[in-house]
Amino acid sequence: MKAVVCTQGELTVQEVDRPEPGAGQILIKVLRTGICGSDLHATKDAAELNALMLESGYTTAIRPEQQVVLGHEFIGEVVSYGPQTRGRWPAGTTVTALPILHTEAGMHLTGFDIHAAGGYAEYTLVEEALTFPVPDGVSPDKAAFTEPLTVARHAVRRSGISKKRPAVVIGCGPIGLAVILMLKATGVTTVIASDPSPGRRELAARCGADVVVDPRVRSPWDALTLKDPVNSTPELLAFALTMTRAVRRIPFASLEKIFFGAERLGRSPSGPVVFECAGVPGIIDHIVADAPLRTLVAVVGMCTEVDKFRPAVALSKEIDLRFVFGYDPAEFSQTLGMIASGKVDPSPLHTATVGLDGVAQAFNDLGDPERHAKILIDPRR
């Protein structure tokens, strides 16, 4: 079969052996695969990615000298089953799957490991237990967004954001745009998006952002209207004083019950939820410095460089930092259902489709934020 092979940062189309499904696995014919920013990073600096994965206990991640087939955002058609499978779906059924493969060598992340070739190929392997049929009527171009949209779904769920709490999305690349889609699908009423790229700001608006700003012209914090007294420490202190005076005017009222009860009901003063989707050094410190008090920051963007922020500033403002990564099978299934029902439409993110021989050029083209958000690969194009 044909596949795009990555070695020493170079992408070439080669003839490779078609994989054979092992225990619990399905062989699928790839219909679409998305190019992810992490694929670009793996190509540019596989050694750095390998070192990062080693720190989390993952020992078989891609190394520069290896021949690895990238691609973890894919859909395909069932071709055949390996041993110890149930044969859940007939051949030809369109499916998508979590990019995880179990072999005798252990657990592997599909597309980042020589033990688990990815979807930049005509065929790939998936785990039957982690495979989901694509509902009828869902186009391959939309179904291929299940994996990246699930990353955004997980980020939104992990943030714990409520519908009335405003959201600020910093960085409107593919993951930031996916977060905007998921925030609006969840019912969040106010989403402010910030990006210096005119093209990405336009896509953010198409994805449902209520306010879109160019941070070089207007701060996203200036676009934020908060009823809670969290714009400054004196404002919060004044609120505490006013509330205490009011409670003590009520006979037999319990200060503890009222304050702690409001906290349990989510009525305590709080800032917005910020989704950091830029992944560049310095952005976390920038957010901590400028965000209102009691802001929750969900860090979604992957910054692989050493970074720093001032803990004392975060402490004095009671900023919550929450780092998010990946997702679980239930979220994957839920996201596929949201795409199928039309609750989430990833079409604005899809800016081009290429064949295997166009992948190398697509990697170059994705460096221009004015031209592309997400490029899909059709191996038979």
Model description:
- By secondary structure, the protein is α/β, with parallel strands linked by helices.
- The chain has 3 domains: 2-133 and 346-377, Quinone Oxidoreductase, Chain A, domain 1 (Alpha-Beta Complex), CATH 3.90.180.10; 148-230 and 269-323, Rossmann fold; 233-263, no CATH class.
- It has 12 helices and 17 strands.
- The strands form 4 sheets. Strands 3, 4, 5, 8, 9, 16 and 17 form a 7-stranded mixed beta sheet that branches. The chain has a 6-stranded parallel beta sheet with strand order 12-11-10-13-14-15, sandwiched between helices.
- Helix 4 packs across helix 5 (174-186).
- The mean pLDDT is 95.
- This is Zinc-binding dehydrogenase.
- Keywords: Oxidoreductase.
- GO terms for molecular function: oxidoreductase activity.
- Residues 22-136 form the Alcohol dehydrogenase-like N-terminal domain.
Give the secondary structure arrangement, pairings included:
Elements (H helix, E strand, L loop, with lengths): L1 E6 L2 E6 L9 E10 L2 H8 L1 H10 L17 E9 L12 E4 L2 E4 L2 E4 L13 E5 L3 E3 L6 H4 L2 H14 L7 E4 L3 H13 L4 E4 L3 H9 L4 E3 L19 H16 L6 H10 L8 E4 L6 H8 L5 E4 L11 H6 L3 E4 L5 H13 L8 E5 L4 H7 L8 E4 L4
Helix pairs in contact: 1-2, 4-5, 4-11
Give a quick summary of the entry.
The chain has twelve helices and 17 strands. It has 381 residues and is α/β, with parallel strands linked by helices. It folds into three domains: 164 residues, Quinone Oxidoreductase, Chain A, domain 1; 138 residues, Rossmann fold, CATH 3.40.50; 31 residues, no CATH class.
